[in-house]
Write a structure and sequence with these properties.
By secondary structure, the chain is an alpha/beta fold. The chain has a single domain, classed as L-arginine/glycine Amidinotransferase, Chain A. The protein is 25% helix and 22% strand. The strands form five sheets. A three-stranded mixed beta sheet has the order 2-1-14, with helices on one face. The radius of gyration is 17 Å and the shape is globular. The model has no long low-confidence stretch (mean pLDDT 97).
Length: 265
């Protein structure tokens, strides 16, 4: 597995685009770097490779590479950010992917940013099956127009809780059969669909709000934020190796372990 990350050199809470963000609750740059480096080391320890995209001054959320795009059938579906504060990332992301040898299925055109799509923040694979979310940051219309997505092998997921504004904040495939989830983040119809497709392990509200579902999965290893003892014990009983990682500085922005990573190979 290969993962894309971006150093938090310019990470800060400079605006508010989700309910977690508060411009009066500033990030501690030194702690943010320490937490990022701990996650980086854990990912390597668990056997994945890491590529780095250079950070860009003035784009503080570029550190959250999960939203850069989706690695799908060995190609990249590039994001279309909803908020103008993040749209400046797109040209840098596209350049990096092209220079790194990836094919982009939907090249970035500055005048065409809709419908919105926020990458692996809202679209996650469990085996070959795509779980594609909409509701807050991604438009359902994006999937309707994206003819390169196999809709026969896609489960559409409606998000209804603004605190869980991306799919990866409330849902985490562990393999092609099992997943973590926070049920109350989804509509009733979506809850039924998810139960029909996967063996679901529910996360408590308290641990969901500590972003327990925002985990990095590398084979049997699960890297998730610290202070999630209940789901940690459940995962360990199922045979997973859980690695706790301090993520306090990123929780201030509504992100954690998974948000800081993007699978690209």
């Amino acid at each position: 597995m290969k993962i894309l990350m971006c150093r938090p050199d310019y990470y800060e809470i400079e605006y508010e685009i989700n309910p977690w963000m508060n411009i009066h609750s500033k990030a501690n740059s030194e702690k943010a770097l320490q937490q990022w480096e701990t996650l980086y080391a854990l990912i390597l320890k668990c056997g994945a490779e890491i590529d780095l995209i250079p950070p860009v001054k003035g784009l503080p959320d570029m550190v959250f590479t999960a939203n850069a795009g989706l690695f799908y059938k060995k190609q990249i579906i590039l994001s279309r950010f909803k908020h103008k504060e993040r749209q400046g990332e797109l040209s840098h992301l596209q350049t990096w992917f092209i220079e790194s040898g990836y094919t982009i299925l939907n090249p970035f055109i500055p005048q065409n940013l809709t419908p919105y799509f926020e990458g692996a923040g809202d679209a996650l694979l469990a085996g070959d099956q795509l779980f594609a979310a909409f509701g807050f940051r991604t438009d359902y219309a994006f999937y309707q127009q994206a003819n390169y997505i196999d809709r026969n092998n896609t489960v559409f997921c409606e998000l209804i809780n603004p605190y869980f504004y991306h799919l990866d904040t409330c849902f985490c495939p562990l393999n092609d059969k099992q997943a973590l989830w926070y049920p109350n983040a989804f509509s009733q119809d979506t809850q039924s669909k998810l139960r029909a497709h996967l063996q679901l392990i529910a996360v408590t509200e308290a641990e969901a709000k500590h972003f327990a579902c925002n985990a990095v999965v590398i084979n049997e290893n699960v890297i998730l934020p610290e202070n999630c003892p209940t789901i940690t014990a459940q995962l360990e009983r199922l045979g997973f190796k859980v690695h706790a990682c301090e993520m306090g500085e990123y929780l201030k922005a509504g992100g954690a372990c998974k948000c800081l990573t993007l699978v690209i190979g």
